[in-house]
Amino acid sequence: MNRYSVLLADDEQEVADAIIHKIDWESIGFSVPIYAANGLDALDRAEESQPDVVMTDIKMPYVDGLQLSRYLKDMYPNIRIVFFSGFDEFEYVKEAIHVQAEEYILKPVDAEELKAIFIKIKESLDKEREAKQNVNVLETYYQETLPVLQENFFSSLVEGKMRPEEV
Question: N or C: fewer beta carbons within 10 Å in the chain?
Fold first, then answer.
């Protein structure tokens, strides 16, 4: 089974370790998160791994979670963002909405809430993946049948089986 990838960015190692170990990631369809100690580290790791989901703290040194998410959304429009923070401030929530974050949760992070969020994200990613596969199947079918359709069209045209208004 293909697992989705997660990048976890937080400058508090203990918090990140707790999040990583609170959930059996593989049982819900995700690889164990890749850890980044700050926003700059997260940018580097995101460019290397191109994760499906980034879970980031808002306040971090060098590049904060909001700056990180804006950059990542520009580079990877389909990436999912989950914010977590110790700050329950409207401006942060407003900015999270602006960057189309999946969720904004407060520290301390509850394991069941986090698991539910990631299950919902997985369902969304599964639907997106299925839609892409369906488009690919249709494109392949179109490419395979186009020559036959063209041949039938031109044969009908040459043989006079089509009236001018049908063309």
Answer: N
